[in-house]
Amino acid sequence: MKLEYFIANRLATSKHHKSSISKPIIKIAIAAIAIGILMMIIAVATGIGLQQKIRQKVSAFNGHIIIKVFDDNQSEVSKVPISKDQEFYPKFKNVEGVKNIQVVATKAGIIRTENTFEGIVFKGISTDFNWENMKEYLIEGRKPKIDLATQENGEIIISQYLANRLLLKIGDKCNTFFMKEESGQSPNLRVFTIVGIFNSGFQEFDATYVIGDIRHIQRMNKWKADEVGAFEVFVHDFDKIQQVGNQVYNNTFNKKDPTKTVDTQIILDKYYYIFDWLKLFDFNIIVILTIMIIVATINMAVALLVLILERTQMIGILKALGANNWLIRKIFLYNAFYIIVRGLFWGNVIAITLIIIQDRFGIITLNPENYYVTVAPVYLNWGYILLLNLGTLLISLLVLIIPSYIISRISPVKAIRFD
């Protein structure tokens, strides 16, 4: 065992050390490190968790990339159909990173009950719809049955928000009116049966969408069986959505006849106001990490100075015996390392415990009108936890090299006489 490590270990575990004047200072330093790493882990876990959850919800209702015809329609309603007979459907062969593609169509309508009514957007889906994206939001009932071998049925799923406002439940039938394109004509009436209720917590979608068979829209709009409103494309890696989106555009561009080229739009552009807001969380996380590291290192610097001043006589004796400044500095840096590790340990234990409790029980709730989620989501990843710990440890030790320089200013003669 090296001499400096041996002495540092004796200093950290000796009874005299535990009853010295530096004891409360060391406890404060350990608490500062623990609170710092606790706040950093929770800040990253909640920040990334909220970003991922909102991305997931927006994607579940829109896909990552939307392909439709060029038009000046700014609403959520499908006006001009697009044929399913495309080279990229049902599978992209020339683009890597695409998970799946599904057809959809939307049409505005009004659900009318005996007591009230609500405006909705009916989202028509087909057999290629990936229900895995909606599975966690379906809180009651089941998904509607869609069988292309039979006629369209009237089964739909509705949001809990709309169900509560319309006083509807599973098994109820509801009259839905859809306006015709030709003015002056009576609206189309469809009687739907509610077979499922979903709750995404994203009120912008929950207050709007009703999901059912796409063939209702095809029949009302007088489209052909192979005509749909749009294609929704899902990618494997959300971080590569821009790159995949550009490839999708290049593979759907009609060089022979640009007028027949379809339009592609990624959800980062469609819901730019949401994703710009999410980017602010990255800045907030950086600010919190910076403040916590500064506070922790300042407390550790103070604790190290107290330890050095308390052991002035020991430093003088070691110098008199021939120890150089760097060897003595390493003694106190090892001691500081021991204090930092203790703080990191307790901070990690508390932070991970709180994250697991929140993930399992959802104790902390949020206002969906402001945060788009009802429960504060968390993201537990051992990779970023390890990086935060290593970063805090390295930065603290590097900063502590500066106050340890005071050891070189201590004179052996004066230190030994010190009483």
Secondary-structure-based class equals alpha+beta
Uncertain regions spanning at least 5 consecutive residues: none
Q: Reading side by side through the largest sheet, how are the strands ordered?
A: 3-4-9-6-8-7
Hey, roughly how much beta strand do the residues contain? 15-25%
Average pLDDT, rounded to a whole number, is 85
Percent helix, as a range, is 40-55%
Indicate the overall shape: elongated
What is the H/E string? Answer: HHHEEEEEEHEEHEHEEHEHHHHHHH
**Straight-line N-to-C gap:** 31 Å
Rounded Rg: 32 Å
Largest sheet: 6 strands, mixed, barrel
Walkthrough of the structure:
The protein is of the alpha+beta class and 419 residues long. It is built from 14 helices and 12 strands. The strands form 2 sheets. It has a 6-stranded mixed barrel with strand order 3-4-9-6-8-7. The chain has a two-stranded antiparallel ribbon with strand order 2-10.
Q: Quick summary of this structure?
A:
The protein has 419 residues and is an alpha+beta fold.
Question: How are the SSEs placed, and which strands pair?
Answer:
Blueprint: H1 3-13, H2 15-18, H3 23-62, E1 65-68, E2 82-83, E3 98-112, E4 117-125, E5 138-141, E6 155-159, H4 160-166, E7 173-178, E8 188-198, H5 203-206, E9 209-213, H6 215-220, E10 227-228, E11 230-235, H7 241-252, E12 263-266, H8 267-270, H9 272-310, H10 312-320, H11 325-361, H12 368-371, H13 382-400, H14 412-417
Parallel strand pairs: 4-9, 6-8
Antiparallel strand pairs: 1-11, 1-12, 2-10, 3-4, 3-7, 3-11, 5-8, 6-9, 7-8
Helix pairs in contact: 1-11, 3-9, 3-11, 3-13, 9-11, 9-13, 11-13
